[in-house]
Write a structure and sequence with these properties.
single chain, alpha/beta, 2 domains, thrh gene product, domain 2
Length: about 200
């Protein structure tokens, strides 16, 4: 019995903050978990920049409405979900993820939530649990499931390294060099085949 655990941004959809940075012409917002392993530090940095520029949830959601899944992502997910259960485990937020889940066919997602003032200002964030990706795969193991995981960033390493099989997908050269023991793939066909092979060994 196994469940596939996938990251969202960078794996199935483009990075929301990078798109928003391009839309608003604020390059500082291009920093992601590929650059900053400490998610708490990264989010506080982002919220500070939003406050400085008078931007809130509404403006980010307007950008998200224009974001489509990466080419082939929905087909990959459909084929995977026909084989087995899939959970998207993301450090994003419910307020960001909802419109994207519609475009992906409403897969299951575990993510976090933003604290938003009445005027739309993002004042903080509430993480579901600490180290949510690692904690979630450990919880799945505790109820009798093996996990096969894939992601692209530093915050995915816990779930990748603690799964029966784990893969990097569309990651950076720096991360691939830092974790040479983890197989890295660039196409959905490659990743799907790797997951099928790993599942056959479980």
């Amino acid at each position: 019995m196994y469940i596939v655990c996938l990251d969202l941004e960078g794996v199935l959809v483009p990075e929301i903050w990078i798109k928003f940075a391009e839309e608003t012409n604020i390059p500082e917002l291009k920093k992601t978990t590929r650059d900053e392993p400490d998610y708490d530090k990264l989010m506080k940095y982002r919220i500070g920049i939003l406050k400085e520029h008078g931007l809130g949830l509404k403006e980010i959601q307007e950008t998200i409405a224009k974001i489509d899944p990466m080419p082939g992502a929905k087909e990959f997910l459909d084929e995977l979900r026909a084989m087995t259960q899939v959970i998207i485990i993301s450090d994003t937020f419910e307020q960001f993820a909802k419109p994207l889940m519609k475009k992906l066919g409403y897969p299951t997602i575990f993510c976090n939530t933003l604290e938003v003032a009445d005027d739309g200002e993002i004042t903080g964030f509430k993480m579901r649990v600490e180290q949510s990706k690692l904690t979630t795969v450990k919880a799945l193991h505790s109820i009798g499931y093996d996990t096969i995981a894939s992601g692209d960033s530093y915050n995915d390493m816990g779930m990748i390294q603690n799964s029966a099989a784990g893969f990097l997908f569309k990651s950076t050269d720096a991360i691939k060099a830092q974790f040479p023991e983890i197989k890295a793939y660039e196409t959905y066909d490659e990743l799907l085949n790797a997951i099928k092979e790993a599942a056959a060994d479980l």
